[in-house]
Amino acid sequence: VDGILNVRAKDKGTGTTEDITITRDKASLSQEEIDRMVAEAEEMAESDKAQKEKIEARNKAEGYAYQLKNLLKDDKKSAKLADEDKETLTGAVDELLSWLDENADADKEQLDEKYAELEKVAQPIISKIYQGAGGEGAEGGAAADEP
């Protein structure tokens, strides 16, 4: 009657009956404690979100760097680039990877900035591969198209 929940269990085999009454315990949390815990959980959610974004930014930058490294290892694609472009791209990739190793605690904004720096160097060079330009291949290709 005074309990919040009354439960009765009867073992049909032995006929034994047990009763349990669940009551509001004095050790229950007060509304103030509940509010504090909810606020802490919300703060943690914000912190978790920031950490997730940081990890995603790091993975994006690192993944892009390794993608470029693999592109440079691909003889068919890298053959379309001038040696100077290969050196520039290799240097930019190595610089980013080194920076990532040295700055494990970098925040999302720093990581995004470094990614953008690499992308700024890489995009013009990569476009040469897909345009068939760069190095000696561009001159030979243009001459072959002329009548």
TrEMBL record:
Matching Pfam families: HSP70
Gene3D superfamilies documented for this protein: 1.20.1270.10, Substrate Binding Domain Of DNAk, Chain A, domain 1
GO molecular function, one term: ATP binding
InterPro entries named among the record's database cross-references: HSP70_C_sf, HSP70_peptide-bd_sf, Hsp_70_fam
Entry keyword set: ATP-binding, Nucleotide-binding
PANTHER family: HEAT SHOCK PROTEIN 70KDA (PTHR19375)
Name of the featured protein: Luminal-binding protein
Lineage of the species this protein comes from: Eukaryota, Viridiplantae, Streptophyta, Embryophyta, Tracheophyta
